């Protein structure tokens, strides 16, 4: 009798990714409901969209596991990278002991395929590699490493041969080098993991791989290999330098006030003449800039500080609102050529003054007077100032008091809401200062800012010549006063349109001098995006918003976040940020364009039409081709233009007229 031939077992080569929530049991023990809610949100906002966006198909999922299949390895890797990146962004403000982080293991292997499952050593090895990965980290096998080496734009640390549980051969492993524990730490963890039992056995994973509709604590993503593994090229997002550690940590943990966190509230004008406000405002601004350069200081930006001008301030509430510990208050009075400043330092936890003092000086030597105040504050805060790094020196100060006066008036005008008229008025005031004192550095810089604003806002009638003039002025400023962060910001702003790659070093230079400049952080964020590095744009902009949450430019900075999300096709997040931006400034047309595109891309055509009606009321000449020309003029970077083309296509889907 002929024996029946068994059914053929279907097998295929696949790229397998397993991810698991680190410390899931501990998190659930601490607070089941909060952990469940947070994990559900992460899965819905980060994991599931990434799988769907990259063509993945969920094979089955459980309360703490998921298998999904992708049409190609490259899409599986793209989905995995997107998951990790997005989870990191969504949890950046969570307390460390409550933060959800995934460990990831990746392997290439032969798997047995069934209608609702996959089996084999390939899956087992990926799961074991996940067990030796750091929270937020990625650990891959040698077979995967051989395929991706030199192709993915990230570095790897060799963890050596690993003896993995229930695997009858050693597996060489590599970890992706990232922020946090270095290769040595990762290697040590791998060695410990090789000798100890992983957190749970593969049998437990198998036992719990049953379909459910709830939250997931781990993911196993499988991508079929077609024609070899091609891995997404990624860019490392470590774009903030060591000198900005305080700012980075404050943005990540807004609930914890840094030790040297403070705000300089607008000084009162005791002359009873509103026309003299510019003088008190100028002193406040200069003092903010000087204190921002103290080592380890976290100083709230001028834009937010000035929202408290002429208001009664509850100091305890202020500390909670801004997430800071100290406030500096003061008053200024001029009498002829003499200036008197009363200054106090307040502890926001108690609402009481730590000290107050009076400073008298000559109007021709405001810099010296301000340095006395800065030094007194530094001593009270137990900070040693490095005098060589002072923003101003006695040698470069104008000795013409009228030139100083015109310069301070010019800067006051420059800080008003920016229009073509106010920009021209500020420029005229700086010209008046320079006629009296051609070497007035602050006036040179102010004039350069005015010219840059003209170029950026389309008011210039000779863009090429104006760019040259502005850069020449800035170079003169930097030659005489190298440690001038605002000069680098101005130069970056000029280079931004057309040469974003050239602008980025200028913003970095500004932040080396003043790591508390929200404008430099925000400018760097949009510069990274325009240079084709949208994934790196979030952190600098988020720091800008932490430093100056009530800034008049906060609406624009929210648009930068919206723009980055839409560039990356993260439409739900983009829609949310665009709406925040619009709520802060309903006259700015930029976020409307991205919001309409996001609605178009996601098929929400009714919402798109509602927003289009609002956009047409603000910008009746808006067309698809006009919008595309504006973007292409900003940057020739191929990655930027590819992403920008997606936004243009979203506008078409939304029904925006072509021309």
Can you describe what's shown?
Keywords: Membrane, Transmembrane, Transmembrane helix. This is Tetratricopeptide repeat protein. InterPro entries: A/G_cyclase, Adenylyl/Guanylyl_Cyclase_3/4, Nucleotide_cyclase, TPR-like_helical_dom_sf. The protein is α/β, with parallel strands linked by helices. The protein folds into three domains: 11-177, Nucleotide cyclase, GGDEF domain (Alpha-Beta Plaits); 261-394, TolB, N-terminal domain (Rossmann fold), CATH 3.40.50.10070; 483-654, Alpha Horseshoe (Serine Threonine Protein Phosphatase 5, Tetratricopeptide repeat). The chain starts with 10 loop residues before the first strand and ends in a 5-residue tail after the last helix. Residues 179-239 and 384-395 have low confidence and may be disordered. The chain is built from 26 helices and 15 strands.
